[in-house]
Structure formats: C-alpha cells, structure tokens
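$ run holo --ligand "zinc ion" --emit tokens
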Amino acid sequence: MRTTVGWHAEPGNGAGTTPTLRRAPLERRDLRPDDVAVRVDYCGVCHTDLHALRAAGADGSGPRPLVPGHEFTGVVTETGTEVTRFRAGDPVAVGNIVDSCGACAMCRIGQENFCHDFPTLTYGGTDRGDGSTTLGGYSRAYVLGERFAYALPAGLDPAAAAPLLCAGITVWEPLRALGAGPGTSVAVAGLGGLGHLAVKFAAALGADTSVISRSPGKAEDARRLGARGFVVSTDAEQLAAARDRFDIVIDTVSAPHDLGGYLRLVALDGTLSHLGHLGPVTLETLDLLIGRKKLSSAGSGGRRGTAEMLAFCAAHGITADIELLPSARVNEALDRLDRGDVRHRFVLDLSDLDGSGRQGPTDG
Ligand SMILES: [Zn+2]
Ligand SMILES: [Zn+2]
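-- output --
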C-alpha cells in the first residue's frame, strides 16, 4: 500500500447535518498489472459530491469512508507491468467510473456507464478486486486500471478540463445520441456545471442553441457561451413564443421540478433529456401526447464517448469555465455550490496537499 492525503467526510456529525471535509491520510493499493498510479492535480466539485456528503450525514446511508471527487486530471506516476497505453509522465483524465465488468452487452458496445453488473464508481464504489470502498479524487494520488484513464489531449488546460470528465460527458452523450448538430435546435435549461458545457457543446456541434433560465440577467453569459436564443422561463409571453420550438431540450436543473414547462417547449417528435436530477418526477402525459414528445435521461459516459468528447474539446478549444481554489478551501466551495454561487464549476488545486498540512482552515 501507498499512503497519500485527501479530504475525508468528518465522521459522526449527526443526523441531518452535512459533514465537512477534513484533511487526513489515506491508502492506495499496490499496482495490479493493469493499473496506473496518477498524481491528482485538479479535481472538479460536482453536485453529486454534495449529495454524497448529505447522504452520509443524514442517515449514514452514504458511502463510508467518504472521499469525494470524480472528475480529475493529473499525471501518471507509475504503471503496472502489463500497462500498454500509458507511461510515467503522461497527462491523464479520470471520470466517475473506474471499472466495469467488461463482458455484458452494455460494456461490449462501449456503454460501460450502463454496465449490467454496475460500473465501479470512482468514489463510494466497491472495488472489483478486493471489495474495498473506492475513495475519490479529492486526494493527491489515485490508482485505477488503465481502461478508465483517458489521455488528456495537449492544448486542454488541465484544471479547466477536469469538469469535462463528469459534467461534460453527462451532457455530451445525450447531445450526440439525440443528433444535435446543424439543422437542429437545442435549448439548455440551467447554466451550472452541466448546462454551461451543454451550451458550448451544442453550439460547437452546429446546433441553433438557446438557454432557458429564470434569470434575465444570465442572457449575456448565455450568449458568451455560444447561445443565440434566450427564453426567460417566468415570462409567459416568451414561453408561448417558444412553444414546440426545440428538437432537443437539455434539462440540467438539479432541484426537483415538474417537467411540463420544458416539455411544452419541445418540438414535434423532439426529446426532453432530463439530466440534472435523480429521483421521481411529476409529468402530465398529455404533455408527451401533444406533439408525440419523448422523455429521456442519461448519465456519465462510456469509454468511447469520453475519448470522442475529449478529442472534440481539443479540436474546438472547449473546457469548462472554472473557479480554481486550493483544496484547503474545499468546504467553502461546497457551501457556495450549494447556494448556486459558482461560475460555472469549482475545481480544486490539490498541490497544497504536498505541504505540511497546516495551511487548511478546516485542518485538525
Ligand atoms: Zn459528477
Ligand atoms: Zn458490464
């Protein structure tokens, strides 16, 4: 085993509280023949991290131990004896899946994210080799099988590229699967981590791209990201004008909400792709019936789709818009994410974990 340092959920905060993160050592396994060891340089802060922390605090149902983080970039430091795709020094990116069965129908078509045996999550998952609970990228080192490490293309800023590996791929796969491109119209609801990347992707794919938002003040930001249209979702006139207009509506709103409002903006035979929120939804089937509309969802991506997205990003110069913070400020980042106070994704710089450990305000 090798010891590194990471940000752990504080145990025993009690029911109903969201645990804060505390700096502490953690162990990584010795390399298996197909493993790579990665020095984690940058890790994005995802809504899932917040949910996992809440679950851990609410009733203990969340993963224990818990080190969040599942969209990170770094550099390979060591390779197992059978690794063929990487060498020490290679820049790499890792997302929210680190293993899958490799044999089921989904794995065979490159949708490892839908593995019938459930993909091994980057944190809070169960390692297929030793049964241990996986610990995430809010740490200075990670060890994983090379299948789920991706070469980070030259030219992509490694800090701003980190969010591509969860937020990015989660919107990339549905946009591709639904045929976003020239001659199609795409609307994106929500301009957080997922939404702002969906706008950049849809525009770069050649779709006529719009943003749906409650806040008229976000129109300028939407345009800067590549949107040509903007619909204020609290304005009845604008909603009426946008009725049945978009071939694809990408819904990245993370709070539970009724789907009717967005479905009414979907064009004949178009699709609402509901991505930001997991759990039950309310829906009037007439909103599907009128216009033969489809409701869809997706999450994460397969190895092929992820590699394709990274190549597209390199070709089009696309990365996330980020606020980069030293990892010692992780609790502040989570708190601000919870309040929606981020443009558009926090990324932690984990190099401060190399120091003595005295610099963190939450330390000790
Ligand atoms: Zn995520
Ligand atoms: Zn599988």
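-- notes --
The first strand starts at residue 2 and ends at 9.
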